[in-house]
Amino acid sequence: MDKKFGFYICSGCGIGDALDIKGLIEEVPEEEGYSNCKTHPFLCSQSGVDLIKKDVADGVNTIVIGACSRRVNWDVFKFDNCIVQRVNLREGVVWSHKDLITDEEIPEDEPNNLQMMAEDYLRMGMVNAEKIKLPEPYQLEEGTNKKIMVIGGGITGISAALDAAAVGYDVTIVEKEDALGGWAAKVRKQLPMAYPYEELQNPIIGSLIAKVEENSKITVKTGTVVARIAGQPGDFTVTLKKPGEKIPFDVPYPLPDEMKVDENGKELDNDALAVKYKEYNEGRHDILKLDPDGEKFGAVVLAAGWRPYKPAEGEFAHLGFGVEENVVTNAQFEEMAAKGKIVTADGQPAKSVVFVQSPGQGDDSDFPYASSVTSLVSLKQAKYVTEDYEDGKAFVFYQHMRTPGLSENFYKSIQQTPGIFLTKGEVVSVTKGDAGMIVEADNTLLGEKIQVKADLVVLATGMVPATKDDPVVNLAYRQGPAFRDIGLFNGYCDSNFICFPYETQRTGIYAAGGVRRSLTMAESVEDATGAALKAIQCLESTDRGVSVHPRSGDKTFPDFFFQRCTQCKRCTEECPFGALDDDERGTPKPNPTRCRRCGTCMGACPERIIGFADYNIDSIGSQVKCIKVPSEDDFDEPPLRILALVCENDAMPALDIAAMNGLTYNHQLRIIPVRCLGSVNVIWIKDALSQGMDGAILIGCKHGDDYQCHFVKGSELADIRMKKIGDALASLALEPERVTQVQVAIDEYDKLPGIINKFCEEVEDLGPNPFKGF
């Protein structure tokens, strides 16, 4: 579009008191089209907004606003069909540098650091507005398919299907077993789901199945699994099959003859051929061609559930498992209880049952994949013993008893149940006695070793997600058929465990229930609602041509200049969400509705051919280049200039919060917000240093076991890239210490100014960039 610029500065909130507004306006380059420059005492007020709206009505379509942070009043300064560029003069300049505000006149031969900062940010905002384009939404050619597929017909999948159907969406449930119900159909009783949360209740799964059968918007396919999911949100093509059924393998182009046989010269079957083909092509292409008969769906709810943990041979031999036939897991005990009264392996009444919550051996950890659910299940199963036998006794030995929320009511009711005994302690051995088994426990609340005679011993083993070692979804993606293993979830599928529950690493596929984490049935039903709503949100966002979380509503999508693509594969490999496949020639093949708009591909590309309409290599690079770097020609002791590329998700809000709390940081810093540190291209840092800037700092989300980047791998990828740039700096005789990366959480705003100041001091100790002035 032909741009007509409007430039506005707010003098409210202390901006006008601290800055020379007239001087700022004089810095506006009229030759660039910024002839329409206006100020207002409260630009966010109705009169201020009306001022801008009047100009928009007169043809202004590119607006630069120097006022508060872009995170504030974003809805107030939103104008249809206009580019709006926010320049943060309030939090980013005035509030965060109150130590520079003075009523005294600053001599001309000394730098006015506050005014220079504001001028730099205004220039950066103006050049960015010049470089970016108004985004246009991406629309699927054949429109958005709004059918939802639910994988798994247990209580979670059924609940998700009923919720989605209730608001008008067509749903297909795909269940690998011959009947619906899953584990919920195998229990004797279930944990309480309603107030006062004290008594066990009969399973509700039967009534839910009946509702599904009555619902015309729900199709059920039992004895069926997903062979393949291809495509993207709004346009998934799904191939279904019967368990164990072989799907014909079709090679898009021939393999070498020597790869079609095994080491003995025998012709490979379809499955083996598929593996060979994938290896031959380095995973570049879909294993199967697009299935013309595949069913179309717009989004997927993954509710494939869980399976009981199966101890390895000898793993819990000290507890008698695999040695004594009357030592069982909680899943085996539940199946026994569902059939009738609890009995031993030889059919005798099991009136004394010991429930073991931890494998012990000096470690207070629970069994693998255990959780609050296994604690509650042990309490539930202990109740079975007293229900079956008036003189029944249940002993629960635990290291940790987890009963979150209102489940505490159930725990208290069990404590008061005659015949049930609970104690903290470590079970050290289970041995065969003359009349049953002897369970020996140490470190109990009684302060001494105790022995209990038991007819049965039950181990509280955990719930393994169905996605552990099994793709389940079988994606025809460049990055493979399963969710990408990022080393955090141990088989659970989740994209961001803090901010965006239900969202997996594959856009349009939302996890609920046991594949996401260990959950009770009540929690699974609630989880199903969340995942169904996420799936619906994805469908409607795709239909409007905008992205889903974290950049919800973003109309941009990556644009590629393929003429310069070298097929290096970095973008396809580093994309956290598998948004890029390959075409037959090995060139990246975008799937825009899979994209979360993080820009990691842009940061990965060495040729710099990837960008977004309003965020690209040129727009950020131009901002870097228009930062004025003072030299000795300007001042006797020129201030340094340090570039900060700051993640918009955690670090930018943290800086705003620091400013709101009156915390200040070094005035030599110049901040450019980025979508994610994963989107940072090293060319920006090289440009900054080559023009004489003295250092660069990247500030983004933490990554690791206890926190996670919004875009899964962005900050970790940036960390890797920054380590590589150190070699390049050394070759230019620049100290690697001039570039660093730090990680902060949004609630560490109070620490961030100190982190910035410390780095700036380190750069000052290194001295000015030797390239300054060249």
UniProtKB/TrEMBL annotation:
It comes from the Bacteria. Gene3D superfamilies: 3.30.70.20, FAD/NAD(P)-binding domain, NAD(P)-binding Rossmann-like Domain. Its cofactor is FAD. Residues 556-585, 586-615 form the 4Fe-4S ferredoxin-type domain. GO terms for molecular function: 4 iron, 4 sulfur cluster binding; metal ion binding; oxidoreductase activity. Pfam families: FAD_oxidored, Fer4_9, FlpD. Keywords: 4Fe-4S, FAD, Flavoprotein, Iron, Iron-sulfur, Metal-binding, Oxidoreductase. The keyword Disulfide bond does not apply. InterPro entries: 4Fe4S_Fe-S-bd, 4Fe4S_Fe_S_CS, FAD/NAD-bd_sf, HdrA-like, MvhD/FlpD. The keyword Disulfide bond does not apply. Belongs to the HdrA family. PANTHER family: COB--COM HETERODISULFIDE REDUCTASE IRON-SULFUR SUBUNIT A (PTHR43498:SF1), FERREDOXIN:COB-COM HETERODISULFIDE REDUCTASE SUBUNIT A (PTHR43498). This is Quinone-interacting membrane-bound oxidoreductase, QmoB. It comes from Desulfatibacillum aliphaticivorans.
